[in-house]
Automatic annotation (TrEMBL):
Record keyword Protein transport present: no
Gene3D superfamilies for this protein: MFS general substrate transporter like domains (1.20.1250.20)
The protein's name in its UniProt record: Major facilitator superfamily (MFS) profile domain-containing protein
Similarity remark: Belongs to the major facilitator superfamily. Feline leukemia virus subgroup C receptor (TC 2.A.1.28.1) family.
Chief place of localization: membrane
Pfam families (alphabetical): MFS_1
Species the sequence originates in: Amphiprion ocellaris
Length: 509
């Protein structure tokens, strides 16, 4: 007889030995030296156990492979978002276009997201995460290859089309980290996993800041410039193709057994009991979540505007420093990656979602103010420092918003909640990028950055107004049972894979 069968038989035996209001607490062989007598459960716990029968859960080592593959795919797409903007002055001269046209090569990512997010969220709910990731990586690969033919000064329309195809892939990326984390990862690591998923996108942005100024130097010879641009496009296409093949071969839908009781409960919902549109309407009526949607959009929209216009801001005060503009962008994102990871680990340890989100938001505002007033001092090292501080908090905020949204909206689909967050971010990203660009042209970089600070202040106030209702935590904590030890003392056993009348079934292979 297998060990799982033994567990099942022992669990059934314990059911037979307990009255409907009793629990067997013989967990000694699992490291919990508790008594064998049945103890009375509180009625509220029994009711919960009857509504949501506790199921077997398991953690699979291959969850880290799924996370790595997705992060690579996200990284490739994010790189192609910024490969024009960080050397915007070079591409403006190469294609003979103005600054607004080059900004749209970045903003097309935002614009595409808005009309496509609802159908893609529906696809995520109806077809699953694997199909969404495969389709998205295919768009990413196709767009990259389209751009390989555009290293010609009269091919701006085609390079814009290639960028548009890549932007479609973004719709299939941004809502995935929280969904992937919930499907594959345990309760004590889900926020860290979400942070790592976001980290892949940030790594792509970092490479997008660093590599294009190196691969495409600002040379006068247009033929030589076209050669360097073509090299960059072919490298992008080769990487995107490799990742597409990797996704097809490696990426899986979900593990055989759920990682947490919250995920097990979500799986128990029958397809005919779930309505996608009803879920959307429930989210729109969720006031704390809608406050988060707007505040998240304000913060991330500011980050998008800064990323898109960074080259223009640096070149205005430090002419000829295209490479350092890329390095400053790299500093913002590397610091943000550290912030994301630290925030994710902190959330897993403390579960202080609102408090952490509010503190990081306030510090993002402070970082933006410091950056705004030090940019024109004439010292590049100061810009590196202030940009790093700004990036640590502003970029570190990204996974916080995802995870807080999942808590506020459980058991709604993680893809739906994160999709609405990102839709808000894209809308504000377009508004802020265009507005700040116009303000910089007319009044300079300080006025443009103060413009963003005002909206970060509004977002901070809105974050403070959010009522923290951690629904996913409540679902996982239904397995908390008070038991009596052999010495007679009361102890609280909380195992996220435990059954209500017997054994903790959380395993890791």
């Amino acid at each position: 007889m297998s060990s799982q069968d033994e567990l099942s038989h022992e669990w059934m035996d314990s059911l037979g030995n307990c009255s409907p209001r009793k629990e067997r607490t013989g967990l000694g062989e699992y490291g919990h030296p508790l008594g064998d007598d049945c103890d009375t459960l509180e009625p509220s716990f029994v009711d919960t156990a009857q509504l949501f029968p506790l199921m077997e859960t398991k953690l699979y080592k291959r969850r880290w492979v799924m996370l790595f593959v997705f992060s690579c795919y996200s990284m490739s797409n994010a790189f192609m978002w910024l490969q024009y903007g960080i050397i915007s002055n070079i591409f403006m001269r190469f294609y003979s276009i103005d600054s607004l046209a080059i900004d749209w090569l970045s903003m097309i990512y935002f614009l595409t997201y808005i009309p496509l997010i609802l159908p893609v969220m529906w696809l995520l709910d109806s077809r699953g995460i694997r199909d969404v990731v495969v389709v998205g990586s295919a768009f990413n690969c196709i767009g990259a290859w389209i751009k390989t033919s555009t290293a010609n000064s009269n091919m701006f329309a085609m390079t814009f089309f290639g960028q548009f195809v890549c932007s479609v892939a973004t719709v299939y990326i941004l809502g995935i980290p929280s969904r992937l984390a919930s499907l594959w990862f345990g309760q004590q690591e889900v926020s860290t996993a979400c942070s790592i998923g976001v980290l892949g996108n940030q790594m792509g942005i970092a490479i997008g800041f660093l590599v294009p100024p190196i691969l495409v130097p600002n040379v006068d010879d247009m033929t030589e410039l076209a050669y360097h641009i073509r090299i960059m496009f072919y490298i992008s296409a080769g990487v995107a193709t490799f990742i597409f093949v990797l996704v097809i071969i490696v990426f899986q839908e979900r593990p055989e057994l759920p990682p947490t009781q919250a995920q097990a409960q979500a799986r128990s919902i029958q397809p005919d009991e779930y309505s996608y549109m009803a879920s959307i309407f429930r989210l729109l009526r969720n006031k704390p979540f809608m406050l988060l949607v707007v505040s998240y959009g304000l913060n991330v929209g500011c980050f998008y505007a800064i990323s898109t216009l960074l080259n223009r801001m640096i070149i205005e005060h430090y002419p000829g420093e295209e490479v350092n503009a890329g390095r400053i962008g790299l500093t913002i994102v590397i610091a943000g990656m550290a912030g994301s990871l630290i925030c994710g680990i902190w959330l897993d340890k403390t579960k202080t979602y609102k408090q952490t989100t509010l503190v990081v938001y306030v510090l993002s505002l402070v970082g933006m103010l410091v950056y705004a007033f030090t940019l024109n001092l004439g010292h590049l090292w100061v810009v590196f420092v202030t940009a790093g501080v700004l990036g640590f908090f502003m970029t570190g905020y990204l996974p916080l918003g995802f995870e807080f949204a999942v808590e506020l909206t459980y058991p709604e689909s993680e893809g739906t909640s994160s999709g609405l967050l990102n839709c808000s971010a894209q809308i504000f990203g377009i508004i802020f990028t265009i507005s700040q660009g116009k303000i910089i042209d007319k009044w300079g970089t300080l006025a443009g950055n103060i413009f963003l600070c005002i909206f970060l202040l509004i977002g901070t106030v809105m974050t403070g107004l959010i009522k923290s209702d951690l629904r996913r935590q409540k679902a996982n904590q239904q397995t908390e049972v008070q038991t009596v030890s052999p010495t007679g003392s009361i102890s609280s056993v909380q195992d996220y894979g435990a059954t209500s009348c017997g054994r903790p079934w959380q395993r890791q292979s």
